[in-house]
Amino acid sequence: MESLFSARIKKVPRSFIREILKVSLDPEIISFAGGIPNPALFPLKELEAATAKVFAEKGAAALQYSNSEGVLALREQVAARYLHTHGFQIPVENILITCGSQQALDLLGKSLLDEGDRVLIEEPGYLGAIQSLSLFQPQFVPVPLAGDGVDTRAMAARLAEGAAKMFYCVPTFQNPSGLSYTESVVREVADLARKNNFLIVEDSPYGELRFRGERAPSFYQFLPEQTVLMGTFSKSVTPGFRIGWVVAPPVLQEKLLIAKQAADLHTSNFTQMILAQYLEDNDLDKHIEKIVKLYGKNCLMMEQVLAECFPAEVHFTKPDGGMFLWGELPEGMESMALFDYCLAEKVVFVPGEPFYTNNNPTRSFRLSFSCVNEASIREGIGRFVRGYNAYAAS
Ligand code: PMP
What we know:
The radius of gyration is 21 Å and the shape is globular. A hairpin with a 7-residue loop joins strand 10 and strand 11. It folds into 2 domains: 7-43 and 286-393, Alpha-Beta Complex (Aspartate Aminotransferase, domain 1); 45-281, Aspartate Aminotransferase, domain 2 (3-Layer(aba) Sandwich), CATH 3.40.640.10. The strands form 3 sheets. Strands 2-9-8-7-6-3-4-5 form an 8-stranded mixed beta sheet, sandwiched between helices. A 4-stranded antiparallel beta sheet has the order 10-11-14-13, with helices on one face. A two-stranded parallel ribbon has the order 1-12. The relative contact order is 0.16. Helices cover 43% and strands 15% of the residues. It is α/β, with parallel strands linked by helices and 394 residues long. It has 13 helices and 14 strands. The structure holds 4'-deoxy-4'-aminopyridoxal-5'-phosphate. 4'-deoxy-4'-aminopyridoxal-5'-phosphate binds next to helix 5. InterPro entries: Aminotransferase_I/II_large, Class-I_PLP-dep_aminotransf, PyrdxlP-dep_Trfase, PyrdxlP-dep_Trfase_major, PyrdxlP-dep_Trfase_small. Belongs to the class-I pyridoxal-phosphate-dependent aminotransferase family. This is Related to multiple substrate aminotransferase.
């Protein structure tokens, strides 16, 4: 069978996180690994009511095939949301509803990338983007992240070595680091994109989950003609619906639509209608407030316990929102080795490796604070420190 597989699929490994999630199914394990939203916050009753209304009012039309662009009412809701949260107007025609924002990556890869094309990506970067875009066999050009966003000097140096087609980034509460770009970094990257003619793919699944600090502008505000926006309802409503979107300039949108048609005809009409109904009947801001309150509390608690328990040479980021923080071990240690010591203590996290495009060992690791509480933070970090001490003593 091996000889029948495509070169493309043979080069891409299974998602490392999905493998870790299997380990964390053991009820005795405390997991800081999963990047999943807290299910206690899914608006069950409201979605149930929206479902009943869609059946009653739309009937069979909700169960029929539909257009590939997506349900108009939902695209209008997405446009209204950008106006509300960012203050800019997006033409509804530029919005394509996708099966989660993850599908937008696949459609962008299909529409833009040939083998060997250079793709700028943050280092560390979102592992799902690395996996998805890897199938198109590009040449990843990693650009390191600093505390205020991507390192624009390093980006300019990489561009001097050769042109790139796109820069994929998560500028707000990045996955995995929790870091956010400042306005000056956004402006500098937009300048580099303008001068070097590459697309900026701004992925923002966590942008609305802010518990402190101020929002920097979107790339769209400086360079709309070269910016692609990716968004999702996975973190604000529910990931199970698999509804996201991509905003692109019309010439690119046309290609994304062809890729979408070829991939799956359209995103589930039924779930799009339920989501549109939910958004019409409920106050999403109020719902997001609840999420932010819980994640903010968990993050502060985790920061405090980490500061109390870990020696100062282990560094952690201090995110202003989102679901993750990022740690870095002292020189000479490796996060994969730490993982084994921590697994023995029955606590897991995600070692840094899958967030890098090379396979070198890393000193970094990701901790998620979305699905924990005070007790599991205290107990889990306690175990984590025991694992760390055992590793340090080895
Ligand atoms: N982009 C980033 C940065 C993510 O963290 C995730 C979810 N882990 C996604 C995209 C995909 O989200 P979805 O497909 O559920 O919209």
